[in-house]
Amino acid sequence: MATYSSKFNTNQASALTNRSEMLALIDKLNKHLSESRFQGKEKHIEKALKQGKLTARERIELLLDQDSFFLELLPLIGLDGDGFGPGGTTVSGIGLVEGRLCVINANVGTNKGGAIDKATLQKTIRISEIASENQLPVINLVESSGANLPEQEQIFNYGGEIFREITRRSRKGLTTISLVFGNSTAGGAYVPGMSDYAVFVKNNAKVFLAGPPLVKMATNEVVDDETLGGADMHSRISGVSDYLAEDEYDALRIAREIMSTLPLENPHLKPEFPVKSPRFSADEILNIVPADIRKSFDARELIARICDDSDFSEFKPDYGPTLVCGFAKIGGYPVGFVANNGVLFSEAANKGTHFIQLCNRQNIPLIFLQNTTGFMVGSAYEKDGIIKHGAKLINAVSNSDVPTITILIGSSFGAGNYAMNGRAYQPRFLFSYPNAQIAVMGPEQLSGVMLMIQRQAAEQAGIPFDEENAKEVAEYMMQQVRQNSSAWYASGQGWDDAIIDPRDTRTVLSICLAVVYSRAIKGTENFGVFRM
Fold first, then answer.
1. CB neighbours of 321 closer than 8 A, spacing ≥ 6?
2. 3-class DSSP state of 341
3. What pLDDT, in 10s, does the model give residues 198-254?
4. Distance CA 288, CA 286 (A)
5. Which candidate, 465, 469, 473, 468, places its Cα nearest to that of 447?
6. What domains sit in the chain, N to C, each tagged with a CATH number?
7. Distance between CA 200 and CA 302 in Å, rounded?
8. How far apart are CA 196 and CA 206, in angstroms?
9. Which of 118, 190, 274, 502 has its CA at 20 to 30 Å from residue 178's CA atom?
10. Do 88 and 95 touch, CB atoms closer than 8 A?
């Protein structure tokens, strides 16, 4: 492949402005990530330590292989919400245990007793989806008092999906291991109860459908929690527990021992090609990608700082220039890039459709880099068939069978979000840069359209139109759209899997590619009808 020859001057004034503004966004990201690492009040952590317990993040660290990565997922879900704070009451991600890729989901028992609020439920369901799609084993580190009762009406109906997916993964041969460190009450009792392996920590694990107070109310039986659902009882009498661990360290050791017995997939963490670093520094990405999404930049400059040896074989470089497509490698894994370089025209849509078909024919995963205001509008473009050409691209994205990964690197507006493999099109992973915005259209366009509609309505009704008041309303609407289309809002809603520092793009993609390449990749030649 051809090594990309960068034309970007990282020291020009606009580049330095980009860098300064992007660093400010990264500072904001790090602040929110710090908030998401909250594990409860100090008094609750001290109480847990006295009981011989570790914090959720300590458990994860001890479980993982030495020097293993941990790709944390959905750390900001619930940001600025009414729940228990960003990230909810779980820590979730992907790492290596006994050399095997796995999903780890840890309840933060020292924060609200690990109770599950709406954001935590959404996060758990998405993590389960990631495990199923990528065929990964799951290790649950359990310590939860169950549903947050004031939110029960938002949790109960969908909460059963967690248990359903444990059994469906088991049917597919995807192992779930649950280590119980404390309370696992009510519906939460089914997490270990439906797992393939259950490990209970002596004296601390308490698993029951109803705790002693509810048993007293329901049956008038008086019983202590250890007799009712303690680790010793479940290990020796009920059989709900498969292993009785002496303490938390022993439980983590047992989990690693179980993982060592699971067969390794073939291929597994073995890229076909040697790994070569890019020829340009990842640090320069901050100079290239503007914080202001209204400013354009060449996606090829970003790709050159992500892919191996900065080698990029571009497909149809002179046709449909507002969509960049081409082949590269990341971490030794072959990939196909589909990246926006502006608004989508018919030619760009046709080019993207062709390229997606090629990647499916060659069994190559696709990486979408979203930065577009959508498809071009206007009478000339409608006559040219922009709808049918855009439909071809959406058809190809919808029916593609190779794994896909999407990163929002700028704007993600209108049908451009769909055509570039947005959340609704089920990418294996979806990440955002902190400058990203996602909406039907940009805030300026939306407020302007609404202003025009109101003015026309007043004219048709024959009533005066208050321009000053309308402008105030439009300004308020613009601020609301800007806030609700930000990366922070999107991540808080769970619309992405994480906001990432742009400089970490290659590392994040390398981990995700290791995951998708750990199973055989098979594309398709079958697509829906392409309207010609």
1. 341, 342, 348
2. coil
3. 999 999 999 998 888 888 889 999 999 999 999 999 999 999 999 999 999 999 999
4. 6
5. 473
6. 1-36+267-440+485-522 (3.90.226.10), 39-261 (3.90.226.10), 443-484 (no CATH)
7. 48
8. 19
9. 118
10. no
